[in-house]
Write a structure and sequence with these properties.
Length: about 350
């Protein structure tokens, strides 16, 4: 470590350039991981807040909540307990005078069931009547207030915002919670025999045993949300690619510096310093550079997170960040392997003798 630090102090400019590259790569990886986590969270906030373990949908809905319909006859045949609740989902456009239109998801609930009962209002209260709704916190940030009157799509009915709630997003859109009867008005079906879009259960082994309905685990249901898997795969690919770049950067820079310092290393070997000690020097240099670079990247990320405007889906997961940091450290060690191998095989006679 002593030799490593001495070498870094001696070649300040070169090692500063390497560290700057690692800072930028780390910063980019941390921001991308934050965006990936934030977007994934905004896709599934509502599903998570419902403590979903099992989802029952129409068998022909292709695991798509918006395509699923459960009839009154099917619902009557199920044996729902306190751990199950029906939801009705519809994409809507929220309109209010003097405000921009807002795309959202309407979730209709039975107020006697657990999802409606467990709704926590960050301000205001839960809905009680048919013309009352509680909406995601995003509406508040966009100027909506408790008591505001809103309309959905082209309908003339007005609804009153009676509260705001946190973590109420589905497919990145903010949710408007209201009664299931309102959802039926928003999605009218011939005959009026539709009761809900899905049955949500917070127990893993719930099964209705009703013809036409199919049970899915929450993990599988989330993986089938529109765009969810493609989005996560894209971010994972980008993060992995950046980690490979960090490996190449550290390997190339250290290799060039090692080649330039070969006569010095040959003299040290001729003086009796073991090759293992010189190899440890290279690996120590790599670790020091990675630690400084990762800390620099983390500080830049923290500054960015504090300045970024509300609405940008940036959310950090400490476990994920820890794994990324560990992965970068491993990349640094692997990147140091090539120059370390060069030093391990150095022949003082051939190098010094020219």
């Amino acid at each position: 470590m002593y030799l490593a630090l001495k070498e870094i102090r001696h070649e300040k400019l070169r090692y500063t350039l390497i560290t700057a590259m690692i800072v930028l790569i780390s910063y980019l990886i941390f921001i991308l991981s934050g965006l990936a986590n934030g977007l994934a969270s905004e896709n599934t906030q509502a599903i998570t807040s419902w403590h979903t373990k099992t989802v029952l949908l129409n068998r022909d809905a292709n695991v798509n909540l918006s395509q699923s319909t459960i009839t009154k006859k099917q619902l009557a045949a199920t044996n729902l307990t306190k751990s199950q609740a029906i939801v009705g989902q519809a994409a809507i456009v929220v309109k209010s005078s003097n405000r921009e239109k807002e795309s959202a998801q309407f979730i209709g609930l039975d107020k006697s069931q657990y999802i409606a009962k467990n709704l926590v209002a960050s301000s205001g209260r839960r809905f009680r009547k048919q013309h009352e709704v509680i909406v995601d916190q995003q509406f508040k940030s966009e100027g909506y207030k408790i008591g505001d009157k809103i309309k959905f799509n082209s309908a003339s009915n007005q609804y009153t915002i009676v509260g705001f709630t946190k973590n109420a997003k589905l497919n990145i859109a903010p949710i408007v919670y209201g009664q299931i009867a309102v959802w039926k008005k928003l999605r009218p079906f011939p005959g009026g025999q539709v009761a809900a879009s899905a049955i949500i259960s917070k127990t893993a082994h719930f099964t209705a045993g009703v013809k036409g309905l199919k049970r899915y685990s929450s993990h599988y249901f989330i993986s089938k949300l529109p765009g969810y898997s493609a989005q996560n795969t894209t971010f994972a690919f980008m993060i992995g690619f950046l980690m490979v770049i960090s490996l190449v950067v550290i390997a190339v820079f250290l290799y060039i510096l090692t080649i330039q310092a070969l006569p010095t290393y040959a003299v040290l070997r001729a003086q009796g310093i073991p090759g293992a000690k010189l190899v440890n020097t290279i690996i120590s240099q790599s670790l020091v550079l990675m630690i400084i670079g990762i800390i620099g990247g983390a500080l830049l990320t923290a500054v960015t997170a504090s300045l970024i405007p509300f609405g940008v889906p940036l959310s950090f997961n400490l476990v994920m960040l820890s794994l990324i940091t560990l992965g970068l450290m491993v990349m640094g060690i692997v990147g140091a392997a090539l120059p370390a191998r060069k030093i391990a095989k150095i022949d003082p006679v051939s190098v010094i003798g020219g």
